Amino acid sequence: IPKIANAIIKVTNADAFSIAQNNGRAAKQIIPHVHVHIIPRYNDTGTLWLKRKILRDNELDELAQKIRNCIE
Taking Cα atoms as reference points, which of 1, 2, 41 lies closest to residue 18? Predict the structure, then answer.
């Protein structure tokens, strides 16, 4: 997780990150499996859970490639 989180911080220019992991129906997990959310955080928004910006597929692909490039 640290390697990926550091790449996300670098690519998104975030100041920090939060980690979330949901388990069970009450946590809105529909298909039982383990996964981790790495959420970029910014000083100007703090830890508020703001409505996220939904990126287009091509923007997501570009962001994913930038993150991969930082990890390699």
Answer: 41
Q: How many CA atoms are closer than 13 Å to the CA of 14, on its beta-carbon side?
A: 17
Q: Which of 21, 70, 13 is nearest to 45 (CA)?
A: 13
- CB proximity list for 8: less than 8 A, separation 6 or greater: 14, 17, 38, 40, 67
The per-residue pLDDT for range 30-39, each reduced to its tens digit, is 888 888 889 8
How many domains are contained in the chain?
1
Point out the residues that are catalytic.
35
Buried b / exposed e over 35-68, threshold 16 CB at 10 Å, is eeebebbeeeeeeeeeeeeeeeeeeeeeeeeebe
The reported pTM is 0.74
CATH of the domain at 52: 3.30.428.10
